[in-house]
Amino acid sequence: MSARILLLGGTTEALRLARQLGPETVYSLAGLGRVPDDLACQVRVGGFGGAEGLAAFIADEGIELLLDLTHPYAAQISHNAARAAELAGVPCWALRRSGWQPGADDDWREVDGWDELTCALAPFERPFFTSGREPLAHLHEIPEHQHWTVRCLQAEPAPPRAEIIGARGPFALDEERALFARIRCDVLVSKNSGSASTEPKLQVARELGLPVLLLRRPSLPVVDREFAEIEALWEVLQQRL
Ligand code: NAP
C-alpha cells in the first residue's frame, strides 16, 4: 500500500508532484490561486487553523509524511508544517529552492520589507512590482513623481499613475521584453523566489541595465529532509510509495 502523504502546495513544483501521486495523497492549497480539477489525488483548499490544527488534521487523516512544497516566502505555513509534524510525530520533508544569484553585470539590491523598499525606490520614476499583492495596499501612497506597474495574480482597477496587470507564470523571455518596453520601467521589484518560471524578467533587466530590488528571503525552519530540486525529492519519495 502507498504511504499517506499530505502535500502542502502553491508552487509549480508542488503541482508537478501532485500530478504523480494517487488518491492516498492529500494535496493542500491555501486557496489564493487556481485549484486544479484534473488530479488523481485528493485536493483540499483552505487553512488548517495554525500548527495545532494542522497536527490534528495529520492525526485524524492518518498522514504518514508531510511534504512542504510551499513558496519560499510563505514562511508561516512552513513554520506551521515543521511544528505540526513534530506534534503529530511524522517526518516533514521540504523543497528549499535556492535563490537566484546575480551575475557580474547585475545591479541587485536586497531590501528588508516595505519601508526599506519605498526608500530604495525614491530615486526612480517607473517601478515594476512583481512581488505579489503588497503594493496594492499602498496605491494611495504613490509619490507624485512615480508611476507604478504592479503584476499580480488578479488584475483590479488601478488609480491614476498606476497599472495593475493580472498574470500568472511561466513568463516567456520575448513577452517579458515586450512588456518592459511597453511599461518603460526604470527599476524591477521582485522576491528572490529562485523559480525558473519567473526568471526571464531578470534577464530583461540585465539586458536593459536596470537595477533590481529584491525582497530578502524569510528564514525557514529546518526539517527532517530538505531538497534543493524537485527531481531529488521525487527520487527519494518513490522509494516510500
Ligand atoms: P503564509 O503566509 O505562509 O500562510 C498563511 C496561512 O495560509 C497559513 O498559516 C495557513 O493557514 C494558510 N496556508 C498557506 N499555505 C497553505 C497550504 N498550502 N494549504 C493550506 N493552508 C495554507 O502563506 P502566503 O504567503 O499567504 O501564501 C499562501 C500560499 O500561496 C502558499 O501555499 C504558497 O505556497 C503560495 N504562494 C505564495 C507566494 C508568496 O510569495 N508568499 C508566492 C506564490 C505562491 P492556517 O494557519 O489556517 O493553516
UniProtKB/TrEMBL annotation:
UniProt key word Oxidoreductase: yes
GO molecular function: precorrin-6A reductase activity
This protein's UniProt keywords: Cobalamin biosynthesis, Oxidoreductase
This protein's name: Cobalt-precorrin-6X reductase
Enzyme class name: oxidoreductase
InterPro entries per record: Precorrin-6x_reduct (IPR003723)
EC number of this enzyme: 1.3.1.-, 1.3.1.54
Pathways involved: Cofactor biosynthesis; adenosylcobalamin biosynthesis
